[in-house]
Amino acid sequence: MSRHVPTPRRRAAARVFAAALLIVAAACGDRPGDGRGYTQEPLERPGFIPRGEQPSPMRELGRPNYARAVAIDLPEEPATAVAPADAPPAELPPGVTQPMFAAGETLYQGRGNCFSCHGMNAEGGALGPDLRDGAWIHIDGSMPSLVEIIRVGVAQPQQYPAAMPAMGGAQLSADELEQLAAYLYALNPR
Ligand code: HEC
Q1: Which atom of ligand 1 is nearest to the CA of 169?
Q2: pLDDT tens across 14-49, in order?
Q3: Does the N terminus or the C terminus of the chain have fewer Cβ atoms within 10 A?
Q4: How many whole angstroms from its chain centre is CA 59?
Q5: Rounded to whole angstroms, how far apart are CA atoms 106 and 158?
């Protein structure tokens, strides 16, 4: 009989046991659902298989991709077209015609090699100065001074590491030198 007398110590042990049972039962119980009998588990844990169901083939695909809606603020006005960087200036200087400018640009960005040191749009680069900022190192910026320096090159550069070869290293006719000069002349502020 004495075995069944609940001593305070046994009562405490029984309480601990009951509490442990409750925790285990809660852990095994149904997960919180959405009220319609569906469990949230598969969304949170793709590897989870609800009791009594076959593993879904979707499981092999890993975590689902959640589509995200992103709000985009559309501008009220359509963007205005931006002029390309090498667009000709709105107004060409006297003595420079549109065909001259276009021919000069083609030479500059092609056979003349100018772009390789002075940048595609004459903005300057590691090997040659900006040719459109109105600031000149060797010349006064007039048409004749431009023609001449392009013809002979710069054997002794002042601010850049290597010399500029005559005509950029190309063979250019007098007309082509004139076209290149016209192109650069028109790019510069006056
Ligand atoms: C190999 C590189 C290189 C090439 C190619 C080149 N240049 Fe130059 N250019 C230079 C250098 C370097 C200078 C002188 C910079 C200095 O003195 O510090 C110069 C100077 C100039 C100047 C005078 C700039 C000033 O401020 O006085 C003009 C104009 C010029 N180049 C136009 C051209 C044209 C047009 C072409 C193509 C036909 C061309 N360059 C090709 C490197 C080059």
Answers
A1: 5
A2: 776 666 655 655 555 555 556 676 666 656 666 666
A3: N
A4: 36
A5: 27
| Structure-token pair, residue 55 | 């593993």
> Which residue minimizes the CA distance to atom 15 of ligand 1?
157
Asked if 76 and 70 touch (Cβ cutoff 8 Å), the reply is no
187 within ligand 1 shell (Cβ under 6 A)? no
CB contact set of 190 (below 8 Å; sequence gap of 6+): 93
Q: Tell me if 154 CB under 6 Å of ligand 1.
A: yes
Indicate whether residue 104 lines ligand 1 (CB < 6 A).
no
Cα dist. 153→13, 100, 108, 117, 164 in Å?
Answer: 100, 21, 14, 12, 5
Q: Give the residue, by CA position, lying nearest to ligand 1 atom 18.
A: 159
